[in-house]
Amino acid sequence: MNRYEWLDEYLLAKPGAGKDFKEEWQWWRYQVGGKLFAALMHPSEKYAPAYAGKDLINLKCDPLMAEFLRQEYPEVLPGFYTDKRSWNAVNLEGSLPEDELKQMCDASYQLVFEKLTKKLQKEILEKAQ
User: Fold this and answer.
1) What is the pLDDT of residue 4?
2) 57 DSSP β-pair partners
3) In the prediction, which pLDDT does 125 show?
4) 59 near 88, Cβ under 8 Å?
5) Is domain 2-128 given the CATH code 3.90.1150.30 in the classification?
């Protein structure tokens, strides 16, 4: 995952973003307003070969865009252990362009942020200033 050393800092730079480690899942979870918008993981060999032993990031995505991205890039897969319609898993060992991954991260954050209450959105944005 060395190619993506910037990813943790990039995700945490989003207004109100926080990070924790879910021990049972072995996931680094990135949240805003208590809602997941990204997760870094490395599923064990017991999972499907497309996911097993790979460095992945799960990102929320508009369902139509999710399908498009999966067709466009071989390293973009249906979300790992999430709703496969609205989540994508990106194999970070693939050759997805960095700017595309940043756009996917931004879109994921935005989709989750927009579902928060207006009050919580305002609080987050005020703290970020």
Assistant:
1) 79
2) 40, 90
3) 95
4) yes
5) yes
- The residue assigned the tokens 């899942």 is 25
- Within 10 angstroms of residue 111's Cβ, the number of other Cβ atoms is 17
- Give dist(CA 77, CA 5) in Å, integer: 21
121 CB-near residues (< 8 Å, 6+ apart) = 33, 113, 114
Mean pLDDT of the chain: 94
- Catalogue the E-assigned strands of 13-126: 17-22, 27-32, 35-41, 56-60, 76-78, 87-91
Q: pLDDT at position 1, please? A: 46
Domain regions of the chain by residue span: 2-128
Which tens digits make up the pLDDT trace of 70-113?
999 999 999 999 989 999 999 999 999 999 999 999 999 999 99
What's the confidence (pLDDT) of residue 33?
Answer: 97
Q: Output b/e per residue, 42-68; b: 16+ Cβ within 10 A.
A: ebeeeeeeebeebbbbbbbbeeeebee
- The residue whose two tokens read 């209450």 is 117
Indicate the SS3 state at residue 34. Answer: coil
